[in-house]
Amino acid sequence: MIEDIIDILRINVNNDFSYAKYYRNRGDLLSKLEKSLTEKEKLPFRIKLSELEKTKLKIPEKIINKIKNELEDIKENFIYIFLQPDSYFLLWLLNEIEMNDKSVLSAMSSVINKLSSVTRGGINIYKRNGWMIHVLYGYQLINYNIPSGCLPDTISWQNNLDITFVKLMEFYNKLAHDYKIVLNICYFLHDIGVIDGVQDHSKNGPKYVPIILKDLNINREQLKRYGICIDYLDLEEILKILIENHTLINLVGGEYSDEAIIERMIKIKYSLSKNTTLCNFYRNEFSIMLFIIGVADFIAVDDCLFNLEEFKKILHSYEFIQAIINEKELERPVKSIALSRVRVMVKQQYFNCIDSSINNNAIAFNLNRDTFMEIIYNINIIEYGIAILKPMNDPGIPIKILFIICKIIKYKFGVDKAKSTKIIFDSSLDIALLEKIVEKITPECLDKQIENKQDTLTFGELIIRSHNNLNDNVIIIKIL
Q1: Is 394 helix (H, G, I), strand (E, B) or coil?
Q2: 132-146, 267-281, 463-477: lowest mean pLDDT where?
Q3: DSSP β-bridge partners for residue 256
Q4: Looking at the structure, do residues 313 and 392 belong to the same domain, yes or no?
Q5: Same domain, yes or no: 166 and 72
Q6: Residue 380 is part of which domain span?
Q7: How many domains does the chain have?
Q8: 48 domain-assigned
Q9: What is the pTM assigned to this prediction?
Q10: What is the DSSP letter of 252?
Q11: What DSSP letter does each residue of 22-77 carry, written as one string?
Q12: Last residue within a domain, chosen from 292, 325, 358
């Protein structure tokens, strides 16, 4: 029985051990060894990082054997884990027990197995260990740290951040019991689309929801057995909507324009209008879940990125989304939102350089500052702009790239067409190489190619391709 298995784990394994802190340290070490390791070598079980490995919790052999012998029962009643207040630690443990060069957790589903083998560098610390580590740390936040109102022990946090988790706890407590379980399931599944590639993982995720729910034996009978009063089809629809939009709250005032957010919310409202349960979910729980998922997902990239200013930004994004749901006007000053969109693309320690960099680039590229800010505010979507631009070590380069984009929009499409323009950064771009190339681009070189009305601008290995669709314009940035 799964109840007995969980009791055995609780009695025999020290749950004071911090897997999040261990993988934080491992991620930091991997970032230093990045060039000397292959992606597969970075995964747990593939490489032993000597001194760090000695600090890891040793799970008793008898417990490991017990888990392996009870795999079918665990899989058959996997939903029971999501009901536990310490399910985060149980999932960490299942991910730590090795079986045939993969974890027991990976053995639960082919989707989880594929997700666990994906790594990512750049600003990501936890994903360097495999994507599932990012998921499990974020899951710990929504299952333990946020409900408890306490900061995780991964880093030395700034003194003023305690209040952020107290505030998050208040939001969490607004959710009914069943929706807290839905939140657990959703966060565990939210990145499943990554198995088809990082670029469109939010869009690709929903199609895997029925597959992984079947793998984990989450169905109408199990919901009823464990007293969850949500119809299975409603659960499936809610999970699909949340997974497809799990990044939405972190896109407000950043990669998405206000207009793009409103357009997205109209589609979400329509999708959640099929019955009373879904309509009520849209009005009452949807924005709260997005808020909690958004904060957890942000921190689980790299805790060091989280601060009071970032929390306030995500909170304001929640308020904007809730205002849309309530059909209320919320004042959104154009210049401050435009500046916000620039700031999210730059490392925080360089924020004091942004103003002068905008002014310098405005002169260099002969593009009026106000025109630049107007275009930035209106650009419909800047896909993967944060992931590509924020890690850059020269604060001038991200802003220079934004000026290049704005100048292309002005002369290729027109300033008034920014609202219908989508910028797409290739998510696999070599960031260091992009920095080097952009550093050498001169305004004269850009102007010459724009004047020739070329659809494809080339700067060494860098390609910037622009084209018109029927209703929108697209600029794609990639390296050959």
Answers
A1: coil
A2: 463-477
A3: 252, 381
A4: no
A5: yes
A6: 349-479
A7: 2
A8: yes
A9: 0.91
A10: B
A11: HHHHHHHHHHHSGGGS-TGGGSTTT---HHHHTTSPPPPHHHHHHHHHTHHHHHHT
A12: 325
84 CA to centre of own chain: 25
Residue 343 lies in a domain: no
Q: Residue holding tokens 């969980």? A: 6
Distance, in Å, from the CA atom of 178 to the CA atom of 52, rounded to the nearest integer, reads 39
Residues 320 and 353 in one domain: no
**Most distant CA pair in the chain, distance:** 72
Grade residue 40 by pLDDT with cuts at 50, 70 and 90. low
Angle, alpha carbons 153-159-160 (nearest 5°): 110
Name the phi and psi angles at 94, rounded to 5: -60, -30
What pLDDT does 51 receive?
Answer: 76
My answer on whether 313 and 380 are in the same domain is no
* pLDDT higher than 80, residue 119: yes
Structural domain ending residue among the three candidates 309, 325, 341? 325
Please, are residues 99 and 72 in contact by the beta-carbon 8 Å criterion? no
- 210 occurs within a structural domain: yes
Look at residue 351 and give its three-state secondary structure: helix
Q: Which residues pair with 463 in a beta bridge?
A: 458, 478
Structure tokens belonging to residue 26: 């491992």
Examine the pLDDT at 41 and tell me if it is beyond 70: no
120 in the same domain as 13: yes
94 pLDDT higher than 70: yes
Three-state SS letters, 198-219: CCCHHHHHHHHHHHHHHHCCCC
| Run of H or E including 399 | helix 396-408
Same domain? 272 vs 394: no
Token output for 19: 């897997």
Q: What is the mean pLDDT of the chain?
A: 93
**Residue 338 located in a structural domain:** no
